[in-house]
Design a protein that fits this description.
The protein is of the alpha+beta class. The chain is built from ten helices and nine strands.
């Protein structure tokens, strides 16, 4: 309704997820839009570009759209029924040279990660809209995907210290937050809905679980502005990232090893906590609620403590490296 009433200046996409289904909406700029139900046995990857193709107005189970989506396209020469089926991307989106380096490579890279059997051409927008994963996609796989930067290839901008690399990575430094939303309908909503958040870029960030059932966060997570501060969780994680980027090939492995270990241990702690939660939540709901809050406070605090330790370790290493470079031995 808001799109149709007020219109929009540029295209965007947004996902909707609940305990029954996932929908994704793409806009056509102006006052038009298309939303598709995500197939349960497929995954969907998009960069900063429209990806939808087919639209069947009679299939209301899987499609929703502005009422005049087809008529407007036909009236204004964006779609000719005589030339074949309606293609949302061809009618309302674009494919320009920028897309071949800014958007295509991300779709190409993640589809290659999850479906290595698919043989896509990175230079052409012929990627399947939905793809079948070679194996079930876990939260750990999602973390890995959000950290993707053409790792260890010629297009890896961080490995080669090349900020002018034309392929836009998934994980970029200017990211404010990275989110993974998980809904498990078989579990109570308090623990079944989890938002895994990394402050800043995912590649040098730490994913922390935020359960829907918690009601507060450690104070440091409520602070943060555009200027670095010692009491902000956001800036604690940001400082580690900034130090990592000073000498990525030397410092990033230190950060990654520590964060991957923490995430793996947190995964196990989550499993153990959730088992206990399920055991008591029906007969002891308040105790279950308190236990979940205590768990969240502990994990989030441990995350900050790890970032603090890494910051000190990296500053120590940076000091040694600078001293070795500017030693003036014998002076």
């Amino acid at each position: 309704m808001l799109i149709e009433k007020h219109g929009i200046a540029e295209g965007f996409g947004i996902g909707f997820v609940d305990n029954k289904e996932i929908w994704y909406l793409e806009t056509a700029c102006g006052h038009r839009w298309l939303a598709c139900r995500m197939p349960k046995d497929r995954y969907f990857v998009t960069g900063n570009q429209s990806r939808f193709r087919l639209y069947d107005p009679l299939d209301t189970e899987n499609y929703m759209a502005s009422n005049d989506l087809l008529e407007f396209a036909e009236k204004h020469g964006l779609y000719d029924p005589k030339k074949g089926s309606f293609d949302f991307h061809e009618a309302y989106a674009r494919d320009i040279k920028l897309d071949t380096t800014y958007n295509y490579p991300r779709v190409w890279g993640l589809q290659a990660m999850f479906s290595p059997g698919i043989k896509n051409d990175v230079t052409k927008n012929t990627f399947p809209v939905y793809a079948k994963a070679e194996k079930p996609i876990s939260i750990a796989d999602m973390r890995h995907a959000f950290r993707f930067h053409y790792d260890n290839t010629e297009h890896d901008p961080y490995l080669h210290s090349n900020p002018k690399e034309p392929y836009r990575p998934v994980s970029i430094f200017r990211t404010t937050q990275t989110h993974i939303l998980q809904v498990r309908p078989e579990l109570p909503q308090a623990i079944g809905c989890v938002n895994y958040v990394a402050m800043g870029m995912a590649d040098l960030g730490l994913f922390l679980p935020l359960y829907q059932g918690i009601t507060s966060y450690p104070e440091a997570y409520t602070k943060g502005e555009g200027k670095s501060s010692a009491d902000s969780a956001y800036w604690k994680f940001r400082k580690v990232m900034a130090l990592g980027m000073v000498n990525y090939n030397k410092y990033a492995p230190i950060i990654k090893e520590a964060y991957l270990k923490f995430e793996a241990e947190t995964d196990q702690r989550q499993r153990e906590m959730e088992e206990e939660y399920l055991r008591i939540y029906k007969t002891q709901p308040l105790r279950a609620k308190d236990m979940l809050q205590e768990f969240s406070d502990k994990i989030l605090t441990m995350g900050i403590e790890l970032a603090d330790r890494l910051q000190e370790e990296l500053f120590t290493q940076l000091t040694k490296d600078i001293q070795a470079e500017y030693l003036f031995h014998g002076a």
